[in-house]
Amino acid sequence: MGSPTLSNGIIPTEDKLKFWTVFRTVGAEGEDILKTAKLVHVHDKEGFVVTSMDETYHFIHGGFGDAKITKILELCGVRVKEFIIGSINLAITENGLLYSWCSEFRSADTPIDKQMKQLGRFSYFVKDGCTPTQVVGLRKRKVRKVALQGVGKGRVVALTVGGAVYHWGTIGGITILAPRLMDKEQWDFAMGRDFWKVTSVGCSFGANFVLTDQGQIFRFGVCANDPQNLLLGAGLSIKKIATTRRTICALTAGGQVYSWRVNKSDGNPAWSTIPLVNVQFKDVQDIESCWMEDVCLVESKDNVRFACYLGNQIVRIFSYSTIPMNQCTAQICQKSYRTIVVANEGRNVTFSDDLWKSKEDMDVTFSLEGKTISAHKWVLTRRSEYFQKMFSGNWSETEGSLIEIKDTKYDIFQALLFHIYHRRVTFSVDETDNICDLMKLADCYCDEKARRSCEEILVRNISADNAFVLMQKAALANASYLEGEVIKFILDNRLIDKTSVQDLTDMLDLLGKETFRKLVIAAASHR
What we know:
- It is globular and about 75 Å long.
- It is built from 16 helices and 29 strands.
- It starts with a strand and ends with a helix.
- By secondary structure, the protein is of the alpha+beta class.
- Strands 1-26-2-3-4-5 form a six-stranded mixed β-sheet. Strands 6-7-8-9 form a four-stranded antiparallel β-sheet, with no helix packed on it. It has a four-stranded antiparallel β-sheet with strand order 10-11-12-13, with no helix packed on it.
- Helix 12 runs parallel beside helix 14 (about 480-490).
């Protein structure tokens, strides 16, 4: 089956999107968005869309009228390459960053308090849970693949490009808030001194799985230090695994499909091996799964596809002939088995230095601190909702050919415009004050991309000398990512323990009551 990619950079709306219910009635705005869609993931009544301009949208259809559409600002400009949707929402970017956030629309299946424990964060503030934020502890790791339980409380497992495996969440009443690296020594002992490289990961009810480059499957439980070889003595070599809510399916190198299924719904689940015995499955080339429906999708080498419904005693099999795999899953459960992407994505659109430096066709001028700076309205309106509203005629600032900007430094405003054109921060990494000022201005101008760029630079430069100041700056700019990382740094380095009573008083004055309260609550949880 491979990755469901499409050519020409845009997913054809009528052919590839309209068989999903959520995209059938979307209104004029939705149709415009779908015409530029390069990446789509569907989960029942929800749809996630990334456009050719790298803008990310959430569609939700309540059953009547047009779908409700929301722009996910935190995921705009970060180049999302894959969504993983289940008990929570996850997104992986092209450079391996992992974002997590709660789903208010699936809280009936998984309450928000249980979702919060799967986010890979220290924060328990529900108001922050529904905002996409990078997973704590993986910001310096390049994530390759993530596995997630379908509904309810559970564990999340992430595989990095280097082959390291991290896990967090809840199993058996034990919760791990932040990503924890697998104990390699324990795994070496169980598997042999020469630990094989992990090539894939999976999640199911009460257990998680890894597939190694030697074709072996290992199941591990709560503490991830008890790996069990599912294939011990079987003489099988597995090339791919696919998990559902209660089943793990495995495709052998010889083209057969096996499955292991949980036998009870509480306590320590017992697993049993169930070969998918069917004469048509001797020559299987690929498998996929629908987590929520306990369905394994099987594709034979002659491209005939089957849906295997994995019941407690028998496997019900339905043929879907040669229709595309995403159309199969749309008919089964209205959930895409994998994010639909385009094959030939272009580079992230930026506007060249020549355009930035050229005075040609610039039609708007800003005045501040006795200086002026000009720009192109079409660039600003295309890249900024703030400027789009400003130039729509509804704002008084647009009156006249010269727009006066008050209470803003010239260099900081220029840096904001530079970021709108180039998608990068012009200040060097040691210009902390300027970067903080840009971060705050970006927040004032609702420019999530610029604010996030500043946060990422500042996070890489947190130190004992600047941690508390950066926490204050983060609070003033609503920079939750930076704030979370600073709190983690403060707690991991026990900076509060080294603080005198007078220093704590000064810290309260610096941070303010609300930010100081967050730090105190996080410190109490950390202990």
